[in-house]
Specification:
By secondary structure, the chain is an alpha/beta fold. The chain folds into 2 domains: about 200 residues, NAD(P)-binding Rossmann-like Domain (Rossmann fold); about 40 residues, no CATH class. The chain is built from 8 helices and 7 strands, in the order E-H-E-H-E-H-E-H-E-H-E-H-H-H-E. Helix 5 links the parallel strand 5 and strand 6. The protein is globular, with a radius of gyration of 18 Å. The structure holds nicotinamide-adenine-dinucleotide.
Length: about 260
């Protein structure tokens, strides 16, 4: 379905981003990976799906590096047809204790990077009259949780950016939507499970049950594969007129 299309997924060396990149590659899209840590493993996983794969190591907190990444993708593949703004970090602390540099980093990586990548991707999408911008927000783009001020502020911002981008592109073949996962067991969440286990002196399994029990009536993690399937739907012809939604996949978290 997506052969001859190119998808750039930020923060795709791990977790949800890698899951979405794989799902798009399974539909035939060439992939530009981005993120830190192991690169060769994710590159090999995508290449094994029979598509072309490139990597750019832009730090998503730096606008100049985002510009270099978008120019690199255009140079290698002609243009970016599908942009998935996924890179994100977390830090947990009360507002009055929140380190200022962590606030700035979360706003830059989780929110401003989506603005920069989107503004740079849109002209070519408009020219082709086809494009997909998919923003990985969170249930925290829809509701709050204590001790996550920067993350919740950034993710609400991403949902707002999604709506405005969708409105501005509404008369065109370009769409913009957000995915709002609940808990997904990636390194970002494993750190929170480990912290809970250490703080309460309980096992990892008990900490996992507590974490899910606080928020997710299903008591199940959403998987990167399920989120990838939603991204594929947004890219399908059935998604042509889906514009500006913030679709939660969260085991009932925000239904409460
Ligand atoms: P993860 O830690 O597994 O992956 C994060 C990715 O972002 C990695 O590839 C990492 O290298 C990359 N990254 C981090 N800082 C970067 C930077 N400055 N520049 C470039 N890349 C950078 O986390 P994840 O859980 O897969 O999170 C992916 C997205 O999903 C994030 O936006 C996160 O907020 C969102 N999300 C996660 C969950 C969850 O439960 N895991 C729930 C809702 C939303």
């Amino acid at each position: 379905m997506l052969s001859n299309k190119t998808a750039l997924v930020t923060g795709s060396t791990s977790g949800i981003g890698l899951g979405i990149a794989k799902a798009l590659a399974q539909q035939g899209a060439n992939i530009v990976l981005n993120g830190f840590g192991d690169v060769e493993g994710p590159k090999a996983e995508i290449a094994a799906l029979g598509v072309k794969v490139e990597y750019h190591g832009a730090d998503m907190s730096k606008p100049a590096e985002i510009e270099a990444m978008m120019a690199f993708a255009a140079e290698r593949f002609g243009r970016v047809d599908i942009l998935v703004n996924n890179a994100g970090i977390q830090h947990v602390a009360k507002v009055e204790d929140f380190p200022v540099e962590k606030w700035d980093a979360i706003l830059a990586i989780n929110l401003s990077s989506a603005f920069h990548a989107t503004r740079l991707a849109l002209p070519a999408m408009r020219a082709a009259n086809w494009g997909r911008v998919i923003n990985v927000a969170s249930v925290h783009g829809l509701v709050g949780s204590a001790e996550k001020s920067a993350y919740v502020a950034a993710k609400h911002g991403v949902v707002g950016l999604t709506k405005v981008t969708a409105l501005e592109t509404a008369p065109t073949g370009v769409t913009c939507n957000a995915i709002c996962p609940g808990w997904v067991l990636t390194p970002l969440v494993q750190k929170q499970v480990d912290a809970k286990a250490a703080a309460q002196g309980i096992s990892n399994e008990d900490a996992t049950r507590l974490l899910l029990g606080e928020k997710e009536p299903s008591m199940q993690f959403t998987t990167p594969e399920e989120l990838g399937a939603l991204a594929v739907f947004f890219c399908s012809p059935a998604g042509n007129n889906v514009r500006g939604v913030a679709w939660n996949m969260d085991g009932g978290w925000v239904a409460q």
